[in-house]
């Protein structure tokens, strides 16, 4: 049963917050900036209103997850810190003497309450609304780009990740007690996941049996991260590979296994839209969604700033119909012609190759036709027929017995001619200088908020991670600009 309890209960100790939590504290400023009741309203239909035990406030549960994103800690540690950190208690709207939740409640909240909720759009929309209301967003341009996130399954095997976590734990312990090495269990040297899990559990038990070591905050943090990974690995033994993640290409010679987050951002560095896809998806096809979402969130858009991935014929047409300028260097290979949607391949700008629906990258390309004599030039991309012969998607794409598989695109159109002329204008050159901002934002997401690697398996969890991370990033940016 859900009862709305979003204000601090009366307590004779509540005055401590005014003494202990400074006015310029980040969490105090976030509480003053935003009314979190929209979370209660969004999740109301996920709870029974008149039956069962009282449920923990969805607003408080959401705030716990937000704290995890801001401080990059585990479920166990965010709850533990809220036991003694007065700024956490204040942010969570607890009385100073109030007890904390069980960490397992956060897992249930993610799986049961946030499931099927478009949290990504909801949270970005809320922050953009705040930024517009406070007069922070004044520009009418959006900068677009995509950043990749490695799956938990990649690039290391489960054993390698477990070994790295246990190594960090041991290293932290030895900083406080070098002699503790003699008490440690023997390391597993076999490439056997079950034995490695047994070793990690033995390591956990050894350290937990020494409260003088295990209660040291930095040791406890590493210990909890290892325990969380051991528990997750136990659940994923049968499905050790992330089924939603796909192989994407950062260049013709390098690849990654994971996801892409396609972003739109105002010139003031407020993220206005985001779409999470598997790693093999191209950047350009996501532009219409990013534009529409930014507009739905209240942005007026008269220019889109990006790289060559966004200068495709369809994108130019959509922008032209709305009198929007695309500040993106034209790549003639990106136009898709008049193919049906199901026949289109994705263009990967980094590798300068097309990727087929099965995720295979073209192995080479060749240009046909002569330039400047009135005929259309064509780029032809060649694929590895050995892969095509066994591909589950070959029907209608590859003919059995064929010695080659190619994909050709025309590189000439009126839209492209107009774009080539526009690229020489002073307006284009000046606006294109803004693109570096989104690259800096991608770096911030990864290096400050841990967005370089997925924290859970599956695209739904990746979308949730993106939602919480971008929400935290936008809130901090708004506070800085205010």
UniProtKB/TrEMBL annotation:
Residue ranges of domain Transposase InsH N-terminal in the record: 20-111
Domain Transposase DDE residues, every copy: 355-478
Pfam families: DDE_Tnp_1_6, DUF772
Name of protein: Transposase domain
């Amino acid at each position: 049963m859900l009862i709305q309890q979003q204000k601090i209960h009366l307590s004779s100790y509540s005055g401590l917050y005014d003494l202990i939590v400074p006015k310029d504290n980040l969490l105090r400023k976030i509480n003053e900036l935003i009314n979190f009741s929209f979370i209660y309203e969004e999740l109301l239909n996920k709870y029974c209103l008149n039956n069962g035990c009282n449920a923990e406030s969805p607003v408080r549960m959401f705030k716990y997850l937000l704290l995890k994103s801001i401080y990059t800690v585990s479920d166990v540690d965010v709850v533990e810190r809220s036991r003694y950190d007065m700024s956490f208690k204040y942010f969570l709207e607890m009385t100073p003497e109030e007890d904390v939740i069980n960490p397992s409640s956060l897992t249930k909240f993610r799986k049961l309450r946030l499931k099927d909720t478009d949290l990504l759009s909801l949270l970005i929309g809320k922050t953009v609304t705040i930024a517009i209301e406070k007069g922070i967003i004044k520009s009418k341009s959006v900068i677009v780009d995509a950043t990749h996130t490695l799956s938990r399954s990649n690039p290391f095997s489960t054993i390698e990740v477990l070994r790295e976590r246990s190594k960090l734990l041991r290293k932290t312990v030895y900083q406080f007690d070098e002699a503790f090495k003699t008490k440690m269990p023997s390391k597993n040297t076999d490439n056997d996941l079950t034995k490695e899990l047994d070793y990690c559990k033995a390591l956990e038990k050894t350290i937990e049996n020494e409260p003088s070591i295990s209660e040291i905050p930095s040791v406890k943090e590493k210990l909890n991260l290892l325990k969380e990974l051991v528990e997750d690995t136990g659940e994923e033994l049968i499905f050790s590979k992330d089924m939603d993640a796909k192989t994407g290409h950062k260049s013709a010679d390098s690849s990654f296994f994971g996801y892409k987050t396609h972003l739109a951002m105002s010139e003031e560095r407020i993220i206005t839209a985001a779409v999470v896809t598997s790693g093999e998806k191209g950047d350009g096809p996501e532009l219409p969604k990013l534009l529409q979402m930014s507009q739905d969130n209240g942005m007026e858009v008269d220019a889109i700033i990006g790289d060559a991935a966004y200068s495709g014929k369809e994108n130019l047409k959509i922008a032209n119909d709305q009198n929007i300028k695309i500040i993106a260097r034209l790549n003639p290979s990106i136009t898709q012609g008049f193919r049906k949607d199901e026949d289109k391949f994705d263009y990967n700008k980094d590798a300068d190759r097309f990727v087929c629906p099965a995720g295979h990258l073209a192995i080479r390309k060749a240009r046909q036709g002569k330039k400047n004599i009135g005929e259309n030039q064509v780029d032809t991309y060649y694929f590895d027929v050995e892969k095509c012969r066994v591909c589950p998607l070959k029907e209608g794409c590859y003919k059995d017995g064929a010695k080659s598989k190619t994909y050709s695109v025309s590189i000439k159109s009126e839209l492209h001619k107009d774009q080539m002329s526009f690229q020489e204008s002073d307006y284009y050159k000046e606006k294109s200088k803004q693109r570096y901002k989104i690259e800096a934002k991608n770096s911030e997401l990864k290096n400050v908020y841990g967005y370089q690697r997925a924290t859970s398996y599956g695209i739904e969890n990746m979308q949730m991670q993106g939602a919480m991370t971008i929400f935290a990033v936008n809130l901090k940016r708004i506070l800085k600009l205010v």
